[in-house]
Design brief:
The structure holds 4 protein chains of 4 kinds. Chain C is mainly alpha-helical. Chain C is built from 10 helices and no strands. In chain C, 85% of the residues lie in helices and 0% in strands. The two termini of chain C are 18 Å apart. Chain D is α/β, with parallel strands linked by helices. Helices cover 32% and strands 28% of the residues of chain D. In chain D, strands 6-7-8-3-9-10 form a 6-stranded mixed sheet, sandwiched between helices. The chains are: A mainly alpha, B mainly alpha, C mainly alpha, D alpha/beta. Chains in contact: A-B, B-C, B-D, C-D.
Chain lengths: 49, 247, 240, 236
């Protein structure tokens, strides 16, 4: 069990990196979807006017 | 060399999975396989006699390396199709695959030395695969630098060309690095083994882990592509609205 | 893809229009260069600077310098060619004359070949001027293995100029041209640099041409692969 | 080869990323006719001329010049074109003679020396033939660019804002040159946002606004006021 810390470091790095990347991606995605919905609504309003 | 091709062919099976799954189903399957992989690695797989527990980094390290290679291969194919068919869909695949490829490449470059330190005693040895990964990292960071700005077809075309050239360069880099490395003394203990000398249990864990990583890759690809597409749609919408206000 | 096949046929036949245009482009580039000699001086001075700085960095130990000499020469060469590419890029885009050339071109790969040959000539002149200096500073007798050295340098420079011209054209159209060119050019040209450095190092140690045959094969394959790839891809670079 | 219609455009659309520069241009031009395209800045005049001169590819639609499709048979179309753009396409470190010699060799002209002197006389630059173009004034460079445009006997002249940066003398000289070329049945397409100049040279006029041709008709001769009302009617 002497090199346990290297193992722990490797796996923790992989996990944190992947999770951060995934969270950032899904956040950006949600944000864009919301903005997209607002703009579409705005477009409808202009067209119906 | 055939080892690579067998893995590549096995990995080819995944695009069809990507097409038939919807997003939520894909996410759940990915989570399940990932958990199974982790349980297998830490509970089922026997610890290697020579290297001890630290050998378990091998599973994540090599499977992310294979996913990285698959990502860059996908970038090359998507770039060729984009130049030929000139359709935006292929271009978004190339961009998303490149970005995820670079993420995995960074992971490989971090876990590689972490694994090498206890076994070889040095953080970095100019081993052919490690050097090749480093050079690929440089090339594809340049690819992303080229794509920083907003959507511009000319830049996309240049990046596509770099995507193709970068991948065509891989065998040449590998060959030259291999020749060059023979001049350096071999690492002291054990050469960083590929999948040779793996017991059947380890091989099973490795395969499950590889499947989990590929599913993860395609999930990320799907996410990243929807980000690119919605950003593109946003711009078109914003432009139409300006158009209407002005018109 | 049929468009590119005709450029190969034209290439093979070397029909006079294609050859004529390549020569006209080359004559224009060399005349401009001869008049101002800007590109050559900047490349030559830069190469000499790199060699001198490496000398100071490595110190006076003659044995160590002999081993490092070929590496230093090739580093100086690739960075000098990066500088040269940027300068030619700027000259080309001053009055948008690239558009004028595109209008007159029968087949666009002629422009690539002309630019590549021009870059090759600049590198050749830089090498001819810096090699004697390196011979003196590194106390290496280049004359002993001159024949083999010419082969190695010719192949290596060809590889550098093919990839360099291709990325020079790409960087020309992007905004951050100064940053993009080295970032694109240096990683991709790593096989050439490694093989060329090893080949020159062994030549300096007195090996024969046969001993470094496989390095030359590697560079040769690199040149052929990237020449063909560049011809196919070049239309997409210049196309609006 | 001198087909009836020299230039034929159908549904030409051009996108730059998300911005649409041209929204479906339909144009037909007889052989030997001189068309003046007028329109505000940003109407897509330059984009249209770049597509016609094979420097840019249309995102959609067909473009045919002298019977050749511009996208597929670009090589055949280019020797027929004489393109004059905002930039002069000339090399500062070469003399006027060397610049024209380079372009002449590129087009594979026979009796190059005579043709160069002939063209330089047409733009009144013979005395400066052996001076570096860098030392030329803006007007002289523009005149040399015009010389370059007509060097290889083009069938179709594409002039993008030819009058910009020209002094009084150069404008009248350019004017005579266009009339002379027009007489030699050379088709000319000229785009400008300057309503006064160019009106008297053109046989037909077109008004382009925001990527579409809004008006196409015969020239009103030198009657500038009528044209101004027409222009403001369409462009607003």
């Amino acid at each position: 069990m002497k090199n346990f810390w290297y193992l722990f470091a490797a796996y923790s790095i992989i996990w944190t990196a992947l999770c951060v990347y995934m969270i950032r991606l899904s956040q950006k995605n949600k944000e864009l979807q919301v903005e997209l919905r607002n703009l579409r609504a705005q477009l409808e309003r202009i067209l119906t006017k | 060399m055939q080892k690579w091709w067998t893995i590549m062919l096995f990995v080819m099976a995944f695009p069809c999975i990507y097409l038939c799954m919807n997003r939520v189903f894909h996410a759940t399957v990915m989570c399940i396989t990932m958990n199974v992989a982790i349980m297998l690695i830490f509970l089922y797989a026997p610890t290697e006699k020579m290297q001890g527990i630290v050998q378990k980094i091998f599973y994540f390290h090599v499977s992310s390396a294979i996913t990285m290679f698959f990502a860059f291969f996908l970038v090359c194919v998507a770039s060729i199709m984009y130049l030929w068919k000139n359709s935006d869909w292929w271009d978004t695949i190339a961009l998303s695959a490149a970005e995820i490829g670079v993420v995995f490449c960074t992971l490989v470059l971090i876990t590689g030395p972490l694994w090498a330190r206890p076994i070889w005693g040095t953080w970095w040895s100019w081993d052919p695969t490690l050097t090749l990964t480093l050079v690929l990292w440089l090339i594809y960071v340049a690819y992303l630098m080229l794509r920083i700005e907003t959507y511009d077809p000319k830049r996309a075309r240049f990046a596509a060309i770099l995507g193709i050239i970068g991948f065509v360069d891989v065998p040449l880099i590998r060959w030259s690095v291999e020749k060059w490395r023979t001049l350096h003394p071999k690492p002291v203990l054990i050469q960083e083994g590929g999948t040779t000398g793996l017991t059947s249990a380890m091989l099973l864990t490795f395969l499950v882990c590889l499947v989990a990583f590929l599913l993860l890759f395609f999930y990320l690809l799907r996410e990243r592509m929807s980000v690119v597409q919605s950003r593109h749609a946003l711009e078109v919408l914003r432009h139409d609205i300006d158009e209407l206000c002005v018109g | 893809m049929c468009k590119h096949s005709n450029s190969f046929i034209v290439l093979m036949l070397g029909s006079n229009i294609f050859l004529q245009q390549v020569l006209a482009l080359l004559a224009k580039d060399l005349k401009t260069e001869w008049r101002t000699r800007e590109i050559f001086t900047s490349m030559f001075v830069f190469a000499v600077l790199v060699v001198v700085v490496f000398n100071f960095a490595i110190g006076a130990d003659t044995e160590l310098i002999r081993q490092v000499a070929s590496g230093v020469i090739w580093i100086a060469l690739s960075f000098a060619s990066v500088l040269g590419l940027q300068r030619t890029g700027q000259m080309e885009s001053e009055e948008d004359s690239l558009q004028g050339v595109l209008l007159a071109l029968h087949d666009r790969s002629a422009l690539f070949i002309a630019k590549m040959l021009a870059q090759m000539l600049y590198l050749l002149v830089v090498v001819i001027c810096t090699l004697p200096l390196c011979g003196i500073w590194f106390r290496i007798d280049f004359l002993a293995c001159l024949g083999a050295l010419c082969v190695a340098f010719a192949l290596g420079m060809l590889g550098l100029s093919i990839v360099g011209t291709l990325f020079g054209m790409i960087a020309l159209h992007t905004r951050a041209c100064e940053v993009m060119l080295p970032m694109l050019f240096l990683p991709v040209s790593i096989p050439v640099t490694i093989a060329a450095v090893q080949a020159t190092a062994q030549l300096i140690d007195g090996k024969r041409l046969r001993d470094i045959a496989d390095y030359l094969v590697l560079i040769g394959i690199f040149d052929v692969v990237f020449f063909v790839l560049a011809l196919i891809v070049f239309d997409y670079i210049v196309e609006e | 080869m001198s087909t009836e219609t020299m230039v034929y455009l159908k549904g030409v659309i051009k996108h730059f990323g998300t911005i649409t520069a041209l929204r479906g241009i339909d144009l037909e031009l007889k052989h030997g006719c001189c068309l003046g395209i007028f329109g505000p800045n940003g109407a897509g005049k330059t984009t249209l001329l770049r597509i016609l001169s094979t420097l840019a590819r249309p995102s959609a639609g067909t473009v045919r010049i002298a019977g050749y499709d511009v996208v597929k048979e670009g090589e055949k179309v280019r020797p027929l074109l004489g393109v004059l753009s905002h930039r002069t396409f000339l090399y500062g470190h070469l003399t006027a003679y060397e610049n024209l010699q380079f372009y002449g060799r590129m087009f594979g002209l026979k009796q190059l020396a005579e043709r160069i002197t002939e063209v330089l006389q047409a733009v009144d630059l013979v005395t400066y033939a052996h001076q570096l173009v860098r030392t030329y004034s803006r007007g002289m460079q523009q005149r040399l660019a015009i010389a370059r445009t007509i060097l290889h006997y083009p069938k179709l002249l594409l002039l993008d804002e030819p009058y910009t940066g020209l002094d009084k003398h150069a404008v009248s000289r350019l004017h005579d040159l266009i009339v002379h070329l027009h007489a030699e049945s050379c088709t000319i397409i000229m785009s400008t946002h300057d309503l006064h100049r160019g009106l008297d040279v053109c046989d037909e006029i077109a008004i382009q606004c925001r990527g579409k041709i809004v008006y196409r008709g015969l020239s009103l001769g030198t009657d500038v006021q009528a044209f101004e009302q027409l222009y403001s009617a369409y462009v607003g």
